[in-house]
Design goal:
The protein is α/β, with parallel strands linked by helices and 328 residues long. It has one domain: Aldolase class I (TIM Barrel). 39% of the residues lie in helices and 17% in strands. The chain is built from twelve helices and 13 strands. Strands 3-4-6-7-8-9-12-13 form an eight-stranded parallel barrel, surrounded by seven helices. A two-stranded antiparallel ribbon has the order 1-2. Strands 10-11 form a two-stranded antiparallel ribbon. Strand 3, helix 1 and strand 4 form a beta-alpha-beta unit. Helix 2 packs across helix 3 and helix 9 packs across helix 11. About 2% of the residues have low confidence. The chain binds flavin mononucleotide (FMN). Flavin mononucleotide (FMN) binds next to strand 6.
């Protein structure tokens, strides 16, 4: 059997398959089963900064920066009642007792406000790391891209003042200069960048004349964007890269590792094929490594990153011209 060990946020883990933050990582039963099947680490379902603010008596109304719609306030209050912050800390403690793989907490945030002090409680509860799922919607026409991007740095700096836990930042590719921003973020002391988050996109119900969410789950075709950016940036940043979005099988894990990812996260496929798919994905990676004669991940990780590939242009625009010019 090949050795699948690697690191995530600088922590030693036994396999590169990390369970992405999702409904499955909100339950001890699933966390235990996923760990038994060989997952390298678990990222718990995210707490929203609004939940923390609400429950820790930074009353919602005081948070003018959030600029919430009334419906959003109601939603947060209801959501908060069902998913208390205290329960989250209990989840961390219980998960740590039950599994011997790293348990990573996750916070969904878009401001560097008082909630950041909660990172201390997460550390005290025993989490091995903290993933910050940051998304600043660049929809305010009065805010420059610099102002929007600065928030990511402010959040990281504030959280790092509160905790010594290794930190990962999970973000989207919606930046005016993605490579440059990610490079700068990698120098802030974070241990990992998760490329990329996936968002609930809006759709319109033309019969009910209403807006509805759509496209909750990814498909395997969605892997391309992450693959490109992992390949472009691996070995060029100060921190590790964790690939997320569109990994639906063992082949997807292998591709991301070849592109240079240190770890690979999965979420949608667990809903689509069930959590046993973790076993088959790892079997595929093992079999492929044996067939190719790779004894460990380091033997092939990054072999097809931009700085090592024999055909690096395949990740850039030039391929676009070559590919589509022949199609009438
Ligand atoms: C049902 C569901 C719930 C999710 N909840 C969270 C969450 O709480 N926090 C988070 O950072 N990402 C969350 N995600 C995003 C996943 O962690 C992942 O980044 C995204 O789905 C892309 O990976 P995938 O293609 O393997 O699904 C969720 C995804 C799904 C499908």
């Amino acid at each position: 059997m090949a050795n699948l060990a690697t690191t995530y946020m600088g922590l030693n883990i036994k396999s590169p398959l990390v369970i992405g933050s999702s409904g499955f990582t909100n339950s001890i039963e699933y966390i235990e089963r996923l760990a038994k099947m060989g997952a390298g680490a678990i990222i718990l379902k995210s707490l929203f900064e609004e939940q923390i603010m609400h429950e820790t008596s930074f009353v919602l109304k005081q948070d003018t920066s959030a600029n919430l719609y009334p419906e959003a306030e109601d939603y947060i209050r209801n959501y908060t009642q069902q998913n208390s912050v205290q329960q989250y800390l209990e989840l961390i403690k219980e998960a740590k007792e039950k599994v011997d793989i790293p348990v990573i907490a996750s916070i969904n945030c878009n401001s560097a406000s008082e909630w950041t002090s909660f990172a201390q409680s997460i550390e005290s509860a025993g989490a091995d790391g903290l993933e910050l799922n940051i998304f600043v919607m660049p929809s305010d026409i009065n805010r420059s891209s610099n102002e929007n991007e600065q928030l990511y740095f402010d959040i990281v700096n504030k959280v790092r003042q509160q905790t010594k836990l290794p930190i990962s930042v999970k973000l989207s590719y919606h930046f005016s200069s993605l490579a440059s921003t990610l490079e700068k973020l990698s120098w802030t002391g974070i241990k990992s960048l998760t490329l990329f988050n996936r968002f609930f996109s809006p759709d319109i119900d033309i019969n009910k004349l209403d807006v509805k969410p759509s496209f909750i789950f990814s498909t395997s075709e969605d892997i391309g964007t992450t693959l490109r950016w992992v390949a472009l940036l691996s070995n060029r940043l100060r921190c590790e890269l964790s690939a997320s979005t569109g990994v639906h099988n063992g082949e997807g894990i292998i591709k991301q590792l070849l592109a240079g990812a240190q770890t690979v996260q999965v979420a949608s496929i667990l809903y689509k094929d069930g959590i046993d798919s973790v076993l088959s994905m790892l079997q595929t990676v093992n079999k492929w490594m044996d067939e190719k004669g790779f004894a460990d991940i380091a033997s092939f990780r990054g072999k097809l990153s931009v700085d090592k590939a024999t055909n690096p242009g395949a990740y850039e625009r030039v391929q676009f011209m070559k590919h589509f010019s022949g199609i009438e």
